[in-house]
Amino acid sequence: MLAYFERHGVMRISDLHIKPSLPPAYRIDGSLVPMRGDPLTLEAVKGLTYPILSEDAIAKLETNLTVDASYHYGSLHFRINVFKENDGIAAAIRALSSDVPPIDRVGFPNNVWQDILDLQSGLVLVTGVTGAGKSTTIASLIDRIAALRALRIISIEDPIEYVLAHKSSMISQREVGRDVRSFSDGLRSVLREDPDVIFVGEMRDAETVSMTLMAAETGHLVFSTLHTRDTTGSITRIMDYFSGDRQEEVRNQLSLSLAYVISQKLVPRAGGSGRVIAMEILNNTYAVANLIRIGKVEQIYTQLQTKTKNTPDGKMITLEQHLASLVKSRQVELKEAQKWANDAKVFADFMSMDY
After folding, report:
1. What is the pLDDT of residues 6-30, one digit of tens each?
2. 103-351: what fold?
3. Residue 59 dihedral angles phi and psi, to the nearest 5°
């Protein structure tokens, strides 16, 4: 079953879902496709999942009712979540290529990635729903940085998804539960480990967010992810982690430390041959930073719509604009793009423009 991912490629076959009372199902080009055959029994599910878990992971599953793990098969690395549910246990298995894709093939709508590679400090957020390729985008950026510069790079991940090659840099990848107790514990120690670049796998709580902002503010280049659907929503989500009496302090921190927010979705490619990335990119220019500082986040979208030129204070794009360009270049079908747009009217407006 894992070999199927190798045969067809992880850009098309992203996940395998296993649970009792149903046949296994693959996620192919974003849609769930069940395998032919009889429904699995609970014993069959255990027979498929337990051999790819360590004894410690199985013990954690019994205690915590869910467990994250990783597994290598052939040329691929798999991220596994096994959890208790009403029919017994189930598993979601995600395939990750061991080869980090070159950054210039990720699918950026402009050359803003080159500016990110040159950053010395600041926070770069990559956001999106589960399965949107956030980890792949960050791995591609860090992989290119590691090749170009001699830096100390340290990541805190849950679990490690891509094993990064050192190249010109020195890289340490730490896994939550195995190497550190939590993201916040890992961040406390990483600031004493002389890093130049830090990758925080996910900002899950106020303490992790606060320490991530501090790391970016004190001269480190920091990458992290959030589960949000757009760039302005990412800023709002960060603020929501904190009580009202800390909001002003955090807004000031974020306005100073934020460099870019990249919100992305993976959209089925025209012709049914895989998926293509659609991005929304926010550049934290002076105007954007001021809007964050005074709490006028709702006005940031205007900056995204207008600051699109290839200049230091530009290179922004809305998701709807990128989707429209993908439709016009025949990479995505119109009906598919309409489904993935955050705002159908804005998308229609971009489709009516000539650019």
Report:
1. 888 777 888 999 999 999 999 998 8
2. Rossmann fold (3.40.50)
3. -65, -40
